[in-house]
């Protein structure tokens, strides 16, 4: 059994460590520091933590001002508010000037659970991906989150990191290097490739195991960075396996699936299936139940894999 | 030198010089906008006296080194008044005055709204109304963390106060007691669709800021002596941010532009240019 860590917990821990190492790091939150885990930083560095109250637009603008004053601001709230409520502030105040602002949104996707569709952001990856200058990162697990946060802090420019609420299994190697814009192959295969991000990478690894029993060899490529997209690893996957299944805890419109489909259609078209939320809003329920309800279980990926393999060569 | 004493207490001769500087900058605004045939005339002319006082009397800044850490920061929240900022920056020496004639053209570093990536001396990108004060807050917080004595000035429009984010920012500035921040509100009473009072009333502006914990100064925004004095008082106020609520006239200085909402976003035509320059005491050599 692999370790289970919530990406938000890894974020809070890493942020506190970074605060120790770099006095330029400041953190802003909008009354959710207990949930986003920025409270760990707040306790250690109260003078560099700014609770902005329930006012996300002002929080993002303030972060842009702090960046203009030479600070490295990390801004946190739930994904639905960071991207939804404050989108234009993210665009105008942070991305347009290429401000050194890090937006780390927790509670992305449907696994937020019981709070329901209003609190389940299924569009944030698509929205952030459409913004010029923005880098979009969706780590698979706790250890990768820690590396991604460090990479974001070291990178000069706006970054969006999407994290989840619940504990997720560790699927990346402890010693695996993390580089913004680079995907990693977590399982080799020859018949198709799962291209995944976030917690769906764990689901794809499980699906690949099941497929092995059926004599189907599935590669798993994890793209923590959705933008910029790792074209090299995708081209290699398309050429060597000839079929792609994308998987994300996000709408199939405009997110990872959209990005991969756009890229491959122009560069190396192969049978492709996007697994994600099928252009619908979320709903209340337990995280596990919702993954089943929206078709994001390993079995759903197995079915999608069979489908693309059957389409090969037709 | 003692900044507050020398920069904020000035004699009548200095005031006269600043008034003349503002007149010249009005001429530059009119010529620049006439050349571009695109841009915002009314709100640039209403704000220029305040911009003049800031750049040529009050603010510490270094045109030869726009990123000088010791500088005071200016945020033009009402970014459509970019011409007012550009003529001041050019006059101060951030870039050649000829560049003004490229305003809003393809390839120009003078964008339709202030762009920190392109124009020396522009601190942040503004123009989407309501966002500038938040950025000014962030700068003020950052400067305070560094123990800097630099101050942050943010110029807003009264129509802009209709944006809810302004009040989020006002609340935060009061909460964090940002006494290194001074907001100036250019109350010219007009916005694109007409009178602010009719489109969406924002008055009483002073009471609103006071309620959020600000030090409030109410002045005539074309009275150079009052502007410089108010900026001096703002620098002396401790424990709270200051807002200078400046009563102005949209299109100030060009009689046929004054108090007309229709000149909010319209540049002077070929026929209007000589008349406008005449109003400003300038001969036209076209």
UniProtKB/TrEMBL annotation, chain A:
Source domain of life is Bacteria
InterPro entries documented for this protein: PDH/Transketolase, THDP-binding, Transketo_C/PFOR_II, Transketolase-like_Pyr-bd, Transketolase_C
**What cofactors does this protein use?**
thiamine diphosphate
SUPFAM superfamilies tied to this protein:
Thiamin diphosphate-binding fold (THDP-binding) (SSF52518), TK C-terminal domain-like (SSF52922)
Pfam families for this protein: Transket_pyr (PF02779), Transketolase_C (PF02780)
Q: Which family does the record claim for this protein? A: Belongs to the transketolase family.
- PANTHER family assigned to the protein according to its UniProt record, in alphabetical order: PYRUVATE DEHYDROGENASE E1 COMPONENT, TRANSKETOLASE-LIKE PYRIMIDINE-BINDING DOMAIN-CONTAINING PROTEIN
Q: What is this protein called?
A: Transketolase, B protein
Q: Per the UniProt entry, what species is this protein from, by scientific name?
A: Geobacter metallireducens (strain ATCC 53774 / DSM 7210 / GS-15)
